[in-house]
Design goal:
It contains 15 helices and 11 strands. The radius of gyration is 20 Å and the shape is globular. 50% of the residues lie in helices and 12% in strands. By secondary structure, it is an alpha+beta fold.
Length: 384
């Protein structure tokens, strides 16, 4: 048995030179399954909720291959890895839909801090109180998933000093999002934010994790993890997802893992202390990803992100095996051993390459192994 999973994939379009070019208005007008972001330089596609990791692999790959084929009809265009405008363009906003008032509000309020790319991981949980418990656990551990996915060390042709410049820059909104103690707490809080104007609509909740559903905040059916940088390698993305799913199965079988009760931080201020600790961990990971020094939510002890993930991997591997998806968890070992995309790119920079050379190589590599992986795993889907 497995939980349902779906993805929202944001990706930049541009030239093989790494220069980002805004094409989402043309893509969404002519290619089914793609939607606009406020800025024209990236575009989004989603996958339907599925339990099978094998089917998810093809659902991640086939829209991307269709997009690549369409881009060829427009000119020498391709897909650009990473979560920021790595080689330039952060000084201006390029609206994809000039008449959209919500997009106008976003541009006016946040500027190009929101012109980033990411991946949102959705995992189905129908029971609202279980969902809230899951959101609490995943939120305090969300920095670990960012550490695995970090892929935005450059901005405007320069290294920024951050492995996830995207999460460093991105405006988490509203400025204070609590650990929701219950579904009713989430409903009350959302209604208050809408009344105060700190949220323009129910979608305007930009934190690392949020409850999601067809009629927010009342009818909810999934957890949405929003913190991850884009992961171009589908097997790496599925490995991160498998780690989350295994952790959720552990929570389902052991509700005492709820941070509000399991944490040994002082009881009187536990929720506030957990939130402060988590936000500090997010910023530490934005800077140093897998090498970041964090504080554990259980007792506040210091622990390196890479070591925390390795401990969880060993703890959760038997659960993943029991549920039938342990093989999709195993690529995490390679990420821990070789580093995430940001760390590999920064190493290439240290070895003498320029930012542009690093990005150009990443563009080429992604295209090659996407095709190879699709040829191995998705022939029937591609034939259709």
């Amino acid at each position: 048995m497995m939980l349902s999973k779906g993805f929202e994939i944001e990706i930049y379009t541009g030239k093989p030179s790494g220069d980002v070019v805004g094409l989402s208005d043309r893509i969404t007008a002519n290619l089914d399954g793609f939607v606009r972001e406020p800025d024209n330089r990236n575009v989004e596609y989603t996958t339907a909720p599925l339990c099978s990791y094998e089917r998810l692999l093809c659902d991640l790959l086939t829209p991307r291959l269709r997009l690549r084929q369409y881009l060829k009809t427009l000119g020498p265009y391709t897909l650009i890895p990473g979560g920021t405008l790595a080689l330039g363009g952060s000084d201006r906003f390029q609206r994809s839909d000039p008449g959209n008032p919500y997009h106008a509000y976003i541009e006016r309020t946040y500027g190009t801090r929101v012109v980033t790319a990411s991946v949102h991981i959705n995992i189905g949980l129908a029971d609202p109180e279980l969902l809230m418990r899951a959101c609490r656990l995943v939120r305090v551990e969300a920095p670990l998933y960012l550490a695995l996915s970090a892929s935005s060390p450059f901005l405007d042709g320069q290294p920024t000093g951050f492995h996830s410049t995207r999460w460093h820059l991105f405006p988490q909104t509203p400025s204070h999002v609590p650990l929701f103690e219950s579904h009713s707490h989430f409903v009350r809080w959302t209604e208050e934010q809408l009344a105060l104007g700190t949220m323009q609509n129910v979608r305007h909740l930009w934190s690392s994790v949020r409850p999601n559903g067809d009629c927010r905040p009342y009818n909810l059916n999934r957890l949405e993890l929003r913190i991850c940088d884009p992961v171009m390698d589908p097997l790496a993305l599925l490995a991160i997802t498998a780690l989350i799913e295994a952790r959720l199965w552990q929570l389902i079988n052991d509700p005492s893992l709820d941070p509000l009760t399991a944490s040994r931080l002082p009881a009187g201020t536990r929720a506030d202390d957990l939130l402060e600790l988590t936000l500090a961990n997010e910023m530490a990971v934005a800077r140093n990803s897998l090498d970041a020094s964090l504080r554990h939510w259980q007792d506040g002890r210091a622990i390196r992100a890479k070591d925390w993930i390795a401990q969880l991997y060993e703890e959760l591997r038997p659960i993943a095996k029991q549920q039938g998806f342990s093989c999709f968890l195993s690529p995490l070992q390679q990420i821990l051993r070789e580093g995430n995309a940001a760390q590999q790119w920064l190493q290439q920079l240290a070895d003498g390459q320029t930012c542009q050379e690093v990005v150009v190589q990443a563009i080429h590599d992604a295209q090659v192994w996407e095709r190879e992986l699709a040829d191995q795993a998705c022939q029937s889907a591609l034939a259709a």
